[in-house]
Amino acid sequence: MDTPEYSKWGDRLLEDPTGPWGSWGHWGRRAILVGLVLSATAVLWVIILSVLLSKASTEQGTLQDHQDLLGTKAMKLTAVLGDLKKEVTAYNSSLQGVQAQLQTTSKELKEAEVKLMEQESTLRELNDRVTQSLAKAGRDLEDIRTELFRELGSIKVGNVSCSQCPASWIPFQGSCYFFSQQRAQWDQAQRLCADAEAHLVIVKDLEEQTFLTRNTRGLGYWLGLKAVRQRGKIQHYQWVDGVSLSFSNWNRGEPNDSRGKEDCVMMLHTGMWNDAPCNNERDNWVCEKRQSC
């Protein structure tokens, strides 16, 4: 049983303000406050969710626009790719045609090359025959002239129209020979002979070769013989009068065209022949000219 409280200021009885109804009022206020807080929180979450949904919707729209743009670009690229495929197909077809034409042209060129090689071989054979014929004709002419000079030699004592060989020149079979004591390159030796109305010696046969060997005096001498090259290779040898080589007196192992630079021919002290570089300055030379009657 509740007992009333008395005030210390008097005998009047004071009642507790927090009686049954006061307690319920206190809890009611707290409940209302909690409700308001919850309501405010709910409203806040609704606002946040609304903002998020609005932003998501906006971004979705933007993504949709980007997707549509990408789709449009993809369609354009597909069209461009289709055009490129058509052009590549056309180029491939054109290249195949060009390739077929090149193969045909290459075949024709090979056939033409074979024909040219055959013609070149035929021309070479003909040239060799003509050269041999000319050489034979030249040799026959030399033989006739030699025989003629032999006959004239027997009567030249009484024939004042025949000129004698110059001093230091040696006569043999109607020709005069000069054996130099100086040394020079092949071209220079040929010019010195030409200045004397002669040429570097042309060896026609073994008899003339024997004569030359007897007069070499242990030295080496340039002959009037030179190589004819084609495409870097020696084809044949030719005398200074244009006649190809027929008689020869090569030393063993010669000519060897050492290092591909031995185009001129000289006679060793033994009388044997050797090919040598034309710019060699260690050799003498032999000039030859016909006696005139």
From TrEMBL:
Pfam families: Lectin_C (PF00059). Residues 172-282 form the C-type lectin domain. Residues 95-136 form a coiled coil. The chain crosses the membrane at residues 31-53. PROSITE patterns: C_TYPE_LECTIN_1, C_TYPE_LECTIN_2. GO terms for molecular function: carbohydrate binding. Keywords: Coiled coil, Disulfide bond, Lectin, Membrane, Transmembrane, Transmembrane helix. Gene3D superfamilies: Mannose-Binding Protein A, subunit A. InterPro entries: C-type_lectin-like, C-type_lectin-like/link_sf, C-type_lectin/snaclec_domain, C-type_lectin_CS, CD209-like_CTLD, CTDL_fold. PANTHER family: MANNOSE, PHOSPHOLIPASE, LECTIN RECEPTOR RELATED. This is C-type lectin domain family 4 member G-like isoform X6. It comes from Erinaceus europaeus.
